[in-house]
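From the methods appendix. Each design record in this collection lists the tokenized structure first, followed by the designed amino acid sequence. Records were kept in a plain field format so they could be parsed without special tools. The example shown here is representative of the layout used throughout.

RECORD:
FOLD TOKENS (374 positions):
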């Protein structure tokens, strides 16, 4: 049977050799043989991040102790950005140990400029979104000032770094706590990228706003309300993508931005469940009708909320998407939905009273109770 590919293997002996040769080409004193030998002793036993840290640690050992000299060697070893463009997919992770080295060894105040030069060049080839965060945490004002220059850079990878590197909840990275508390400094940068010609950049901006929305939903909806006035379909796509978490949660302001009236003229009737009591592992079926009391057609985002019983005896709501519909004037529409209570790894069920509630355009309507038993 063929062995399954493991992501951690993107950093391997072949990559270590390539890195060593690149450095030795510009720094003949580099002990390429022992550098590779020491790393390859343990690299196969490590997870992905640990591999990057291992390589960075031996860069520190075998490069000059003087950081500016070592940084210059690393910079010269990168080759042209065009060469980096030839790498695709997971091969681009070749540059990750470089970034780890910079964030570990280049944080001294006097090394800031040289580190920024390396970050700038690295992000053209891979990304420095993890590396830049160390500088944002230690030198927030100075780093934001540098990003304010890069926001207009001709290279889309550099412009994306401005957004991606300042994301408060970047995956695989520690949260930028200060930016979670106050995202406005980063938001000033995003303002300059909202009409960026690159989808790569715009997607990052949308993801960044989606992060902010988890802590400051009102700030995001008020910002995007202004952006909504821009007659640019690319920006309108960005807005829709940025609102996805708020839409999933049924945020009325977010839904209103997408054309769903905050106070729909509707009523809910005939809400019923196929059983008032069921066991864990079974499926519940519920039905209901939505009737329009409007003389005009209405766009509706129909969701439902399951209020799950928790271990502490309190109910906790979770919103589920159901259907987007166009409800005609004075029309009644029937809905039916199955809800599974089968055991899954991501949810633990607790016996007791549960509740289903209907949500339309972010507003809660009728609800019905049922009991879940072990």
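DESIGN:
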């Amino acid at each position: 049977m063929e062995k399954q590919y493991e992501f951690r293997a993107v950093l391997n002996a072949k990559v270590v050799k390539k890195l060593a040769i690149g450095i030795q080409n510009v720094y003949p004193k580099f002990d390429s043989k022992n550098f590779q030998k020491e790393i390859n002793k343990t690299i196969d036993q490590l997870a992905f991040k640990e591999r990057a840290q291992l390589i960075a640690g031996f860069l520190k050992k075998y490069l000059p102790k003087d950081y500016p000299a070592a940084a210059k060697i690393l910079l010269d070893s990168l080759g042209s950005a065009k060469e980096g463009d030839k790498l695709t997919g997971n091969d681009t992770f070749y540059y990750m140990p470089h970034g780890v080295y910079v964030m570990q060894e280049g944080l001294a105040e006097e090394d800031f400029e040289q580190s920024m030069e390396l970050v700038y060049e690295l992000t053209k080839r891979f990304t420095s979104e993890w590396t830049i965060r160390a500088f944002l945490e230690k030198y927030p004002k100075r780093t934001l000032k540098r990003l304010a220059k890069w926001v207009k850079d001709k290279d889309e990878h550099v412009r994306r770094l401005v957004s991606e590197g300042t994301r408060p909840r970047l995956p695989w990275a520690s949260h930028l706590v200060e930016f979670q508390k106050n995202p406005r400094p980063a938001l000033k940068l995003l303002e300059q990228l909202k009409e960026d010609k690159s989808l790569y950049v715009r997607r990052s901006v949308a993801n960044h706003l989606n992060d902010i929305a988890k802590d400051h939903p009102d700030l995001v909806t008020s910002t995007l309300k202004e952006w909504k006035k821009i007659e640019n379909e690319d920006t309108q796509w960005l807005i829709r993508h940025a609102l996805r978490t708020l839409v999933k949660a049924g945020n009325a302001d977010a839904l209103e931005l997408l054309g769903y009236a905050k106070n729909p003229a509707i009523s809910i009737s005939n809400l019923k469940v196929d059983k008032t009591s069921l066991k864990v592992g079974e499926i519940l079926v519920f039905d209901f009708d939505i009737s329009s009391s409007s003389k005009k057609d209405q766009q509706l985002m129909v969701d439902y909320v399951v209020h799950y019983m928790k271990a502490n005896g309190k109910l906790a709501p979770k919103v589920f998407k159901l259907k987007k519909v166009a409800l005609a004037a004075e029309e009644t529409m029937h809905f039916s939905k199955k809800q599974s209570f089968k055991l899954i790894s991501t949810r633990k069920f607790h016996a007791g009273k549960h509740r289903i509630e209907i949500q339309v355009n972010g507003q809660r309507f009728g609800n019905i109770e049922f009991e879940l038993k072990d």
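APPENDIX NOTE: DSSP finds 17 helices and eight strands in the chain.
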